[in-house]
From TrEMBL:
Pfam families: DUF268 (PF03269). The chain crosses the membrane at residues 6-24. The keyword Membrane applies. InterPro entries: DUF268_CAE_spp (IPR004951). The keyword Membrane applies. Keywords: Membrane, Transmembrane, Transmembrane helix. This is Uncharacterized protein. It comes from Mytilus coruscus (Sea mussel).
């Protein structure tokens, strides 16, 4: 019960920070490779038969995910988003190896396999635009694989001056800093960062006074900073299941969860 309450607190914090991002995001600075031809429901792909073997796993996952993964449910209006309450079986989800497995192909498919299109678009709820990334970080290293003390020191100093570029530009970094100032649990807390290619979010957290930070990232990162430890998803799952993960006072994620696994 205590854990559940902690969990809902974290969800609220994540939502709060996501809203912040949405409110302050004007430009997306990451360059993406654009493709012109639209994807339609009729798209066929040579990957269909490959991914059809995954459908059973997806179905099993959906089943144990329960109400949380039922996208047909209607929420009640919240401050920014509709609000939906769901019972979460954390243990069942963490026990499922499929949740953080890799697709196993040399390159991410250029087109959404039609067999998965409904799941990708929440049954057509999400409009499809084409943009292609091939970032197979799982099982590989992150963009900056070693986080040195001096790198963090420099980032924190830049953040203090309001001049840290981060991944999305100075104004995005400053918007996040502003949000973190108001988020409960950050100052003096143990904070989880979900998704991180370079430690700009971590630097903002250190600047504001987080006591310790755990970064969860698909790509492997070696942190030489004593307040930052890093984990890949399999380690996160394992430590959750053997009860050594511990609790967090806050969770921060910037532009990661919404495209994880796509
Ligand atoms: C998965 O579930 C969907 C919808 O519930 C169903 O149509 C489909 O046949 C299932 N596929 C497998 C492989 O179990
Ligand atoms: C999903 O939610 C809808 C709307 O509340 C409900 O009618 C449906 O039975 C749910 N599906 C499952 C599989 O629980």
């Amino acid at each position: 019960m205590g854990k559940l309450m902690e969990y809902s607190k974290f969800v609220l914090i994540i939502i709060f920070i996501s809203l912040f991002i949405i409110l302050f995001r004007h430009t997306r600075l990451r360059t993406i490779e654009k493709h012109v031809e639209p994807i339609t429901d009729q798209t066929t792909s040579k990957h269909d038969s490959y991914f059809s073997t995954y459908l059973e796993e997806i179905n099993k996952t959906r089943l144990l995910c329960g109400q949380l993964c039922n996208t047909s449910r209607k929420g009640t209006p919240g401050i920014f988003f509709d609000k939906i309450t769901a019972t979460i079986n954390c243990k069942a989800l963490f026990q499922n190896e499929y949740v953080d497995s890799f697709h196993g192909l040399a390159h991410a498919p250029r087109k959404i396999p039609s067999i998965l299109l409904n799941d990708y678009t929440m049954n057509g709820l999400i409009k499809v635009h084409t943009a292609y990334f091939n970032q197979p970080y799982l099982g590989s290293t992150a963009r900056i694989p070693i986080w040195t003390k001096s790198l963090l020191k420099e980032y924190v100093a830049q953040a203090k001056k309001g001049k840290l570029f981060g991944t999305y530009g100075i104004s995005e970094t400053n918007a996040l800093r502003d949000g973190l100032q108001h988020a409960p649990g950050v100052k003096g807390g143990r904070v989880l960062v979900i998704g991180s290619e370079k430690p700009w979010v971590e630097a903002c957290l250190l600047e504001i006074g987080a006591k310790s930070i755990v970064t969860l990232e698909y790509g492997r990162i070696k942190s030489e900073h004593e307040q930052i430890t890093t984990m890949v998803p399999s380690e996160y799952r394992r430590t959750y299941l053997d009860n050594t993960l511990g609790l967090f006072d806050a969770v921060v994620s910037f532009s990661s969860i919404e495209h994880s696994g796509l």
